[in-house]
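> example.struct
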């Protein structure tokens, strides 16, 4: 049916733009990351109950982000559309993976993730060259890994989770 394709595109658009936060007039990536800040504590509750369930949900979120980013490339007709922020959302979720959740850790992860997402140290920048939705999302996953390691270091050095 013709309506099914347009429904899928509409859902992909909603997901890709982080529930339209990607349309923020300034710093859409930062606004998209804030969606991740809202989701992370809920996802962390799953991690407490089951690491496997947590990893499955995180993997599903990443797969959905790649799918949505791929469709958004067709919608916007640009390789890495500015309003697409689902990559920041899942990147931030990786930044918070298996960390204690508190205002401090959420803030540290936010700051480090944005730093690594903006500066794109290797291999983040190289990951952008991957095709389609993979190139949009995987560089942010790498930035999330860097941020996660940085937060672990900061916490090990005694920074409060509060």
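> example.seq
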């Amino acid at each position: 049916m013709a309506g099914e394709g347009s429904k899928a595109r509409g859902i992909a658009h909603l997901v890709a733009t982080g529930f339209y936060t990607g349309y923020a007039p300034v710093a859409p990536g930062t606004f998209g990351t804030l969606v991740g800040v809202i989701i992370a504590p809920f996802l962390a509750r799953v991690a407490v109950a089951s690491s496997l369930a947590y990893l499955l949900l995180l993997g599903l979120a990443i797969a959905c982000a790649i799918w949505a980013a791929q469709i958004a490339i067709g919608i916007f007709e640009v390789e890495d559309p500015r309003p697409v922020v689902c990559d920041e959302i899942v990147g931030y979720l990786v930044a918070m993976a298996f960390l204690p959740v508190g205002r401090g850790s959420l803030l540290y992860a936010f700051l480090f993730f944005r730093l690594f997402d903006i500066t794109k140290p290797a291999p983040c920048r190289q990951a952008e060259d991957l095709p389609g939705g993979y190139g949009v999302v995987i560089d942010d996953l790498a930035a999330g890994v860097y941020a996660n390691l940085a937060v672990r270091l900061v916490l090990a050095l005694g920074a409060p989770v509060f």
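> remarks
Helices lie at 2-16, 28-49, 51-76, 86-95, 103-119, 124-127, 132-156.
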